[in-house]
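Model it.
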Amino acid sequence: MTTGTVIVVDDDAGIRTVVRQALLRAGHSVRTTDSAAGLWRLIEEGVGDVVVTDVLLPDANGLDLVPMVTARRPGLPVIVMSAQNTFSTAVKATEKGAFDYLPKPFDLNELSHSVRSALEGRQRHAAAPEPEPATDSIPMIGRSAAMQEVYRTLARVIPTDLTVMVLGESGTGKELVARALHDLGPRRAGPFVAINMAAIPRELIESELFGHERGAFTGASARAIGRFEQAQGGTLFLDEIGDMPTDAQTRLLRVLQSGEFTTVGGTRLLRADVRIVAATHKDLRRLIENGQFREDLFYRLNVVPIRLPPLRQRRQDIAELARHFLERAAAEGLPKKILAPDAIGWLEAQPWPGNVRELENAMRRLAALARDDLITAAACELHIARAAAIESNPFAGPAAPGAPATPDGTLEAVIAAWFERHLAHAPGPPADGLYDRFLPAFERPLLELALRFTAGNQLKAARLLGVNRNTLRKMLETRGIDPRSLRGG
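Modeled.
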């Protein structure tokens, strides 16, 4: 195992101690300091084989130190750690020449691995290209752990020309990733060209990609350039690659293998000087098993996979995203609105099957329709959940005047409407202890339903509910439910 002397720079004594102990256990020597001044003293003394520094120091910005350190001590790798867990921070760290970027809190084993890799010289990041792009304007938002790995992978692959496969459900922001790879990469002076395979008739995809010559097929009255020619010197984004016909897959594979292509009906070889970014919400491996996608093409495209998490796996990002979308809506001319704390809680509790795209549309709807500048949970219920109920049953007529709202949409909408009827219009404020008063009303029918589905079998019911069998037994005792009475289904 390669070991060396690591300089740890952080103004938090607790973090310095924890990092120092972890590195000592890994066999390294460690020198610590709480400031940039202390780091420079060690640098001038020739101490250190690796630097691990925080971004926010009392006398400097750790990102600004990176090129200064490498200029003074060429070949000395710098690992940046930061609690400012944004995409911009990760990209800037890479642009400044940092060996690695670790968002706080990080796994100490990951830190040890990064230090060991730096010592072994496995990877060196190039210095920032000139001029630096304006990374602060990148529309990728979120500080959740699920997004940190996305940022780190992006930061490492942006300076390269590697082919990237972006995976994720619809609405997670796959095109934003493709644009970030282009706008911050070495091809940003060239064009960014996108093509959605699912939106083009199958018989026209080859012509759309590679262009065609006059007379190549019926209706081809003139030569037309395809997306590969349009994207020369830039980036070609192949969205929904899983919907590509097999014939076109074969032709695309030849282009990726040789770097050359011909137009439909043409014979002259053209050079494909593009960076490829592909994206899909489908399981390509399953398509391969079913003979619907070429395995060799998959490996050509899947050089660097980036998987975007669905919004339900990054709920802590919802508030920041929602505020961003409201600010964007205001910048576009809609009324300026802010979110009340109960609205944030409401938004964080929703399933968001349409992911970030659905959240953005919901915020635009609130900006346009909410009457007050302060958006509350009640406004969210009115303009989001009930709108979803209308979308799910658009032909249902409006309720009679004065009739209570009974939306046919999400469970959340039904429950919210129930609470509105029983609490919002009750005389005087409700009594304390709402949670304990109402939880049994929702928990009991769910428990009974699970037992009916499983003919009273508690083990199967627990598995169906996703709880431990002992937990289920306690829940049944608390609610006074006899599973034997439900065996008949």
